[in-house]
Every structure is written in C-alpha cells, then in structure tokens.
Q: What sequence folds into this?
C-alpha cells in the first residue's frame, strides 16, 4: 500500500489497528473515495461504510452474501447523501448483474433465475490470505438460493455443464456468493439460484459437505476454518482458459 500511495500525488499512509480505528480516521479526514481491500468484509465493510457517509464514496472487494447484502441495505442512505457504494468490485458481481438485467429486459417478470459463474482464475504463488479465505468460508456457510428471503440450498447441488464459446465445457454447481444477491435484486424473481465452476462437483466431496457446512455455520468453526485456509500456500498457475463469461438463465 505504501508503494501505491507513493504514486498518488499528495497521498499519505495511515496505519490503523482495526476497522473501527480506520473508520474514525475516515470521519476525521473525509476522503473523496474509500477503497476497502481488508477482509473479512462481513466485519470491516459496515464500520467503514458508515464512516464514509455522508461525505465519501466507497468501494470494496467483497463477494460474500452477508457483506454484500448489508452494504446494499444502506443504498437509500447513500442516495440521500448523493454518495455511491460499490461492493464486489474484484469479482463477478457487476458482470452477473448486468447479464441478468439484459436477459430480463423487455420480458415478463422471471419466475426463476440461475446465474453460473465461470471464472478463469490464474493464481500467484503465496498464501490464500484472510480476505479471500473469509469470502470463501462465508460463501460455504451461506444459503444458496434466494426466495424472497434467502433459503438454504445444498452446496454442490444442481450440477450443470455449460459449453463455452470455444466449445470446451465446464462443470458448475451450487455456490452462494455475491452474484446471488446481485441477481436476486436485479431480476426481482421469486427464486434465484447461484452456481460456480469453483464449487465442488465430486460425489464423494458433496457427500461429506453437509457436516462441514454445519460446522462452518457455528461462529467458532467459521473463524477457525478462515484462519487455517488463510495460511494455506498455493502454487502459481496460469489461467485454465481464455474465456471468462457469466452465464444466466431465466424462466
């Protein structure tokens, strides 16, 4: 971050020990824009957003259902202050939302929407990190289907094999992330289903998932899993394919 600040004229670096401490500095400094890259966003987003309003715009990289929903619930407050709140900036939230809006345009209200995220992810060598780990763990512990209010859907359910523009095929299955919330709000459909190519599709893994998810829905279990996953070292890998395209279906 110090390197980034050095490239911005007049920028200063502020070190804070917690989200609450940084929120207080935001209230004091009143920056034009706050970009939050510090996870877990379910813990950091709301304090910083509340500190931003009514003076600062806000952007973060959240992609978990809890953080994204909480931020969007503040939409009216942001509009009243003429400020913009953007969440999911580093993931496929905006892309999924745009596809759903286009599919629903000029058509009768959809009864059901399914969004399938097919990211082609390259990896750098290093640790997973707390922000990404928290997003993944929170996604595993979240409901996977929107029906007015979010209702439980089993992780890895409803597998599908979309065909990409180059003719290759990728398996997807239920995985509740921020795209679920975006598609639900964009479509207004009574039932919305979220899936991803990053979801487990192996029958053996899916068989043991219910027990693991039950543990993750306990706060202590979720915190432990996040800490352990954050410390996992991953090897560098190239993107598996050139194409990246969110797919959507409405009925």
A:
């Amino acid at each position: 971050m110090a390197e980034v600040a050095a490239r911005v004229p007049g920028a200063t670096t502020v070190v804070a020990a917690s989200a609450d401490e940084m929120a207080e500095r935001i209230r004091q400094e009143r920056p034009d824009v706050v970009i939050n890259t510090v996870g877990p966003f379910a813990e950091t987003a709301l304090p910083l957003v509340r500190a931003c309003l009514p003076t600062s715009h806000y952007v973060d990289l959240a992609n978990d259902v809890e953080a994204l929903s909480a931020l969007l619930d503040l939409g009216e407050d942001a509009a009243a202050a003429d400020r913009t709140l953007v969440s999911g900036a580093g993931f496929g939230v905006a892309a999924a939302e745009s596809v759903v809006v286009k599919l629903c345009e000029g058509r009768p209200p959809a009864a059901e929407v399914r969004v399938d995220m097919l990211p082609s992810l390259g990896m750098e060598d290093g640790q997973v990190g707390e922000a990404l780990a928290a997003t993944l763990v929170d996604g595993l512990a979240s409901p996977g289907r929107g029906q007015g209010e979010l209702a439980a859907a089993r992780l890895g359910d409803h597998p599908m094999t979309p065909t990409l523009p180059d003719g290759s095929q990728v398996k997807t299955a239920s995985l509740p992330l921020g795209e679920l919330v975006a598609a639900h709000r964009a479509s207004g459909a009574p039932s919305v289903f979220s899936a991803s190519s990053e979801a487990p599709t192996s029958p053996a893994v899916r068989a043991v998932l219910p027990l693991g998810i039950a543990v993750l829905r306990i706060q202590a279990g979720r915190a432990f899993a996040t800490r352990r996953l954050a410390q996992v070292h991953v090897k560098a890998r190239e993107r598996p394919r050139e194409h990246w395209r969110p797919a959507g279906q409405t009925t």
Q: What stands out?
A: The first strand starts at residue 33 and ends at 36.
